[in-house]
Amino acid sequence: MNKISDRINNLAISATLAMTQKSRDLAAQGFDVINLSIGEPDFNTPEHIKKAAKEAIDNNITFYPPVPGFPSLLKVISEKFKKENNLDFSPEQIVVSSGAKHSIINALLCIINKGDEVVVPAPYWVSYVDMVKLAEGVPVVINCELSNDFKMTAGQLENAITPKTKALLYSSPSNPTGDLYSKEELEELAGVLAKYPDIIVISDEIYEHINFSGKHQSIAQFKAMENRVVVINGVSKAYAMTGWRIGYMGAPIEIAKACTKLQGQFTSGACTIAQMGAETAISAGSEVCKEMTKVFEKRLKIVLEHIKDIPGFIPNSPQGAFYVFPDVSDYFGKSDGKTLINTSDDLALYILSEAKVATVAGTAFGSPDCLRISYATSEDNLNEAFARIKKVLGKLN
Ligand SMILES: Cc1ncc(COP(=O)(O)O)c(C=O)c1O
């Protein structure tokens, strides 16, 4: 008998985590690997946040927390939504979880029945499709074009909707592309959704603060979207707190209550010490993110300059997060005499083995012609990584 359930056997391993592991394994064998597969800021958590967590330990804030989060943290998040996004989520509409990833699966498990369709524009974040499947939903993927910076159009959204559509799930700024929707583009999408009032939107805004083009926009701002958007956010990316595992949602009250019920059976709430750190991070505001964002923007320019120099790499035009997602399909069918490249997976593995640079193939994000390159690493690393990539790509013809 199979010890493992079909549910888990059918689940894919996170490709980004797998690539990160491969590059760590090579590094452990003594190779000098540059990791451009990573999805986390390369900065340390700011001191004032660490201090708050240390104080939480000293003050014995170490007992089980309230399941949706400490009331003081829920209040701070509610105020953040109002101040930064002009969105009204009362503290009762907020649920704090162990990372934004956890918030997303909570939302899906609470709204999806078996066979419900969830529209997911591709390129999508690596976990969305498997999370939908875990919730017994059916992912309906929209293939978005590089010519539209990988964003779905109102027409594409309309075509993907059927009587079975329960939800739309996407991120902006996007992982893996770094592209983001403008207010006008979101308004057009909201215009389509206005005709389908039962569809819930899960809007993943975890990269909100890493935005090079001005003010972050949420689809929740539009009248037609009232009381049917689950806004996902967290502290991992904005405050360099990936290991603290704190994410949150602002949601219609029934969904927030359902997520609290689910979480009550799963985790009993998020780590108390990390919650205290997150409260300090969010209440101190986003000034600290601005410094990091400036650094990311500078690196993006460097990376785009390098990509311009690589024949056959067609970049998109990222405006946020810390990823570039070039089309690399020009290399398919090429070989260095030993290795034949047929897919972006082949290319990512070739670059890892020959150049010792880790990237992630677009396959994992539903766009197999592309490669995700993260620039959450130093300028020196980026310059060295691209010198190596150019050298090994030059051997393919
Ligand atoms: C688009 C997107 N959503 C959610 C997450 C998960 O964030 P967290 O670390 O808070 O679970 C990530 C992390 O890579 C992400 O890229």
Structure description:
This protein is an alpha/beta fold and 397 residues long. It folds into 2 domains: 6-44 and 288-393, Alpha-Beta Complex (Aspartate Aminotransferase, domain 1); 63-284, Aspartate Aminotransferase, domain 2. It has helices at 6-9, 15-28, 47-58, 71-85, 100-111, 128-134, 154-160, 183-193, 253-266, 272-283, 287-308, 344-355, 379-393; strands spanning 34-35, 94-97, 117-122, 138-143, 165-171, 200-204, 229-234, 247-250, 323-324, 334-335, 340-341, 357-358, 360-361, 371-374. Helix 6 (128-134) links the parallel strand 3 and strand 4 (138-143). Helix 7 packs parallel to helix 8 (183-193), helix 11 (287-308) runs parallel beside helix 13 and helix 12 (344-355) packs across helix 13 (379-393). The longest helix is centred in the C-terminal third of the chain and has 22 residues, at 287-308. The chain is globular and about 60 Å long. Bound molecules: pyridoxal-5'-phosphate.
SSE layout:
Layout: H1 6-9, H2 15-28, E1 34-35, H3 47-58, H4 71-85, E2 94-97, H5 100-111, E3 117-122, H6 128-134, E4 138-143, H7 154-160, E5 165-171, H8 183-193, E6 200-204, E7 229-234, E8 247-250, H9 253-266, H10 272-283, H11 287-308, E9 323-324, E10 334-335, E11 340-341, H12 344-355, E12 357-358, E13 360-361, E14 371-374, H13 379-393
Parallel strand pairs: 1-12, 3-4, 3-5, 5-6, 6-7
Antiparallel strand pairs: 2-8, 7-8, 9-14, 10-11, 13-14
Bound molecules: pyridoxal-5'-phosphate.
